[in-house]
Amino acid sequence: MKIVLASNSPRRKELLEQAHFRFEVEPAKVEEVFDESLPIDEALMKVAQTKAMDVADVYPDYVVIGADTIVYFQGKRLGKPKNKNEAKRCLHALSNQTHEVKTGVCIIKDHQCYPFVETTKVHFRDVSNDEINRYVNSGSCMDKAGAYGIQECDFVEWIDGSYSNVVGLPMERICQFFHVRF
Ligand SMILES: Cc1cn([C@H]2C[C@H](O)[C@@H](COP(=O)(O)OP(=O)(O)OP(=O)(O)O)O2)c(=O)[nH]c1=O
Questions:
Q1: Signal sequence: where (predicted)?
Q2: CATH number assigned to the domain covering 3-177
């Protein structure tokens, strides 16, 4: 079975590699448009599907994996920060609070779409202004939903659910789909 990952994210590539998948990488060339009129999970699956379908056009005989990760907090979707100030505001808001990380996935196989959403609860400890400034100024938060990477900061006190889902792909469910042991 030939697999292609429709993503630009180095984290998703790494997660699939760690699980010993063999695959190509072809980032989708579509704008991420969120349909705010839909319930959050539906909107997320739609974005993942748009990414997967874009690549399926070019790789018709491959199984395509598309995904999109967001932070969901107090009924609001937090994507990648637009600038450092927004990143700081976002981390302040998440400090000492519990939020959800949602990854929408769409797998296209034999012209059929298999979409799903995985949700992980994440709790931040109390994070000081200094810590937030230092982390944001290091720059690595800018390409990450919610302005943090669980794999590179120590703000997370506990999680409930899939860790890899927070990083960008729910590997338990991906492996289940492909009948691979996780
Ligand atoms: C919350 C969180 C997100 N992230 C990353 C995963 C995703 O790469 C990114 C969310 O952006 P996405 O838009 O889901 O993905 P992407 O733009 O990196 O790649 P593509 O659209 O081509 O698939 O945030 C982490 O690495 N660690 C975290 O703890």
A1: none
A2: 3.90.950.10
